[in-house]
């Protein structure tokens, strides 16, 4: 880069202005609203809000865990395929990433709702449609729907790491007397663990803060933090300081999870750089 | 303990490559090198012996036990891979101790034994380093120590020297041989480097297109190659297309050559082999198999000089210690070997 410092500063002005106007200012306002009054105290005094926080954390962890378990298995399989078939499957797998949460919710309602296609098929086998719908319209249903669009994210972040892993290492371990499983646990697992952890933290953060799918699928019947926040803002005569406090809480948890992801990713990156 | 491979066959599903009925044996303490151009099946042979591939037919016996179909972990083989396949998340010491850990040996005991193994390969000062902090030669030594620490039945080496530069390769070659002798272990060494194979092995297997062409000592392989391909692949060679045209006389593109035709009938198509070091410079006038020509290439290699003499109808490759001008050469009849066409 060349040019005088003043010119460079001038060039940065539009970007800085945008950042201040649409990021720092609103964020500051929310934080100020949350911290100025007694809103934070009120959140912790209100049992149902704390329960919402707990439910959201549980939902995030469950969806994150389900996606990572599924994603690791699929990525392991994809990594062993020839590149051509792998690329084709990757396209198919990436497709759910382009769907909006609303569409995902609608799809699951068509499939597993009270009059859903799969529900009716299962009903023919003697299952109770109401039970299936109850499953869909509660936390298990959300875990399922979230995993649907989180698993591809896990797969796409893990695949390069798995595909680049030198399988002669596990072959070497096997030749020394390790079973296939033992070789995976002793040799592959420690090397991919940081990336898997980063991926888990990332999708957990997404699941923790997501609300589109939840709103479309279960409405505001389920007590989770993003939906409580949504009702607070959407309702007339809203309690804005309380909404701000919830926002700060949501932001804090997500930031923490993202920090975990970043640190884990940085560690694996550093490892990789020294190695090559 | 020995390694015996009997009529081993394998075919890759996609390509036509594979292995067609290869048989060879490595006796206890013996060092056998397998050479051949890429795609000849030498790496496939190694993978079959290691158990990473399953043969379509044939048998693999290690220390007298039929190991065909037995998983790799139960074959008790030490393997050094082409890229060493060291575990990057473990130190050199932990790498060497890992096979002992798999055998349920306690931490103190296995670290002690791994430490001794590293000491034998002059790496004790580097025990706490990770593979990425070691040079290629050091990684190689760790890989070798790791492959031998659990006293395996046999040692398999998959082009272990190909990642090293020329200077380290020769030293490492001697080191591998010394360690192998010390352990008295049957060793199968796969390489594409014929010079490496000749210098290190008790016997050499030459492969091509999935078939074993010849299994012999380095000297026999060089002096009495089974066919034209082996003759050309192992060492430098003059190879002439020839036809038997009389008792102990053949016709070639550079003219008639006297040599022993071993009673082949007139008209038989053969290949004539003359090693370049057998070609004599400045023979007396009237000597048999004497050729006059012009020097077209002249390479001074220090301990010897390799030259191409263009003669009517072809070129003769020779090696000499002489530094003088070369105008004529002789291929002594007893240095010409007759091979199938």
Automatic annotation (TrEMBL), chain A:
Keyword Membrane among record annotations: yes
Entry's localization field: Cell membrane
Main location: membrane
Pfam family, one: BPD_transp_1
Gene3D superfamilies linked: MetI-like
Record keywords: Cell membrane, Membrane, Transmembrane, Transmembrane helix, Transport
SUPFAM superfamilies: MetI-like
Top-level taxon of origin: Bacteria
InterPro entries: MetI-like, MetI-like_sf
Record keyword Cell wall biogenesis/degradation present: no
Stretches that traverse the bilayer: 52-76, 88-109, 143-163, 196-219, 240-261
Topology in the lipid bilayer: Multi-pass membrane protein
Record domain ABC transmembrane type-1: where: 53-261
PROSITE patterns recorded: ABC_TM1
Family: Belongs to the binding-protein-dependent transport system permease family. CysTW subfamily.
Protein name per its UniProtKB record: ABC transporter permease subunit
Species classification: Bacteria, Pseudomonadati, Pseudomonadota, Alphaproteobacteria, Rhodospirillales
From TrEMBL, chain B:
The protein's name in its UniProt record: ABC transporter ATP-binding protein
Domain ABC transporter: 3-234
SUPFAM superfamilies per record: MOP-like, P-loop containing nucleoside triphosphate hydrolases
InterPro entries referenced in this protein's UniProt entry, alphabetically: AAA+_ATPase (IPR003593), ABC_SmlMolc_Importer (IPR050093), ABC_transporter-like_ATP-bd (IPR003439), ABC_transporter-like_CS (IPR017871), Mo/tungstate-bd_C_term_dom (IPR008995), P-loop_NTPase (IPR027417)
GO terms, molecular function: ATP binding
Gene3D superfamilies in the cross-refs: 2.40.50.100, P-loop containing nucleotide triphosphate hydrolases
Keywords: ATP-binding, Nucleotide-binding, Transport
The species this protein was found in: Azospirillum endophyticum
Keyword hit for Ligase: no
């Amino acid at each position: 880069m060349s040019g005088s410092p003043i010119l460079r500063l001038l060039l940065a002005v539009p970007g800085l202005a945008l950042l201040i106007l649409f990021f720092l200012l609103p964020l500051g306002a929310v934080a100020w609203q949350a911290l100025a009054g007694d809103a934070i105290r009120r959140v912790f005094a209100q049992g149902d809000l704390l329960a919402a926080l707990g439910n959201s954390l549980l939902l995030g962890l469950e969806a994150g865990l389900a996606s990572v378990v599924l994603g690791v298995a699929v990525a392991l399989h994809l990594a062993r395929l020839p590149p051509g078939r792998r690329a084709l499957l990757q396209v198919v797998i990436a497709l759910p990433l382009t769907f909006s949460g609303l569409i995902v919710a609608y799809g699951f309602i068509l499939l597993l709702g009270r009059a859903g296609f799969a529900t009716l098929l299962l009903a023919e086998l003697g299952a109770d449609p109401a039970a299936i719908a109850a499953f869909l319209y509660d936390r298990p249903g959300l875990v399922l729907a979230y995993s649907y669009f989180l698993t591809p994210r896990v797969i796409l972040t893990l695949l390069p790491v798995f595909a680049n892993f030198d399988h002669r290492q596990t072959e070497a371990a096997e030749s020394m007397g390790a079973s296939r499983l033992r070789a995976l646990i002793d040799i592959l697992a420690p090397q991919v663990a940081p990336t898997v952890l980063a991926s888990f933290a990332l999708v957990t953060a997404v699941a923790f803060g997501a609300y589109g799918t939840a709103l479309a699928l279960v409405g505001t019947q389920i007590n989770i933090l993003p939906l409580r926040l949504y009702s607070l803002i959407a309702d007339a005569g809203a309690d804005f300081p309380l909404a701000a406090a919830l926002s700060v809480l949501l932001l804090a948890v997500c930031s923490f999870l993202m920090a975990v992801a970043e640190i884990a990713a940085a560690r694996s990156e550093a490892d990789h750089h020294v190695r090559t | 303990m020995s390694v015996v491979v009997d009529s081993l066959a394998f075919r890759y599903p996609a390509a036509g490559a594979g292995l067609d009925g290869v048989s060879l044996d490595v006796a206890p303490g013996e060092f056998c090198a397998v050479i051949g151009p890429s795609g000849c099946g030498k790496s496939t042979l190694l993978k079959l012996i290691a158990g990473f591939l399953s043969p379509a037919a044939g048998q693999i016996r290690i220390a007298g036990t039929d190991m065909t179909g037995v998983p790799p972990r139960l074959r008790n083989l030490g393997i050094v891979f082409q890229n060493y396949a060291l575990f990057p998340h473990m130190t050199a010491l932990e790498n060497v101790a890992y096979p002992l850990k798999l055998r349920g040996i306690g931490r103190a005991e296995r670290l002690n034994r791994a430490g001794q193994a590293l000491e034998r390969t002059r790496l004790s000062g580097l025990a706490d380093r990770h593979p990425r902090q070691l040079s290629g030669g050091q990684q190689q030594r760790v890989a070798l120590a790791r492959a031998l620490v659990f006293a395996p039945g046999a040692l398999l080496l998959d082009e272990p020297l190909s990642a090293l530069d020329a200077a380290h390769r020769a030293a490492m070659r001697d080191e591998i041989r010394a360690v192998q002798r010390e352990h008295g272990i049957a060793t199968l060494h796969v390489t594409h480097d014929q010079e490496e194979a000749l210098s290190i092995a008790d016997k050499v297997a030459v492969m091509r297109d999935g078939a074993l062409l010849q299994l012999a000592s380095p000297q026999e392989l060089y002096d009495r190659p089974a066919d034209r391909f082996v003759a050309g692949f192992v060492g430098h060679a003059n190879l002439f297309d020839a036809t038997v045209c009389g008792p102990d006389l053949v016709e070639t593109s550079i003219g008639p050559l006297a040599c022993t035709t071993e009673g082949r009938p007139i008209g038989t198509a053969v290949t004539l082999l003359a090693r370049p070091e057998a070609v004599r410079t400045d023979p007396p006038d009237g000597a048999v198999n004497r050729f006059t020509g012009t020097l077209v290439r002249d390479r001074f290699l220090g301990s010897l000089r390799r030259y191409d003499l263009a003669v009517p109808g072809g070129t003769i490759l020779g090696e000499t210690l002489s530094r003088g001008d070369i105008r004529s050469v002789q291929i002594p009849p007893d240095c010409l070997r007759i091979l199938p066409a």
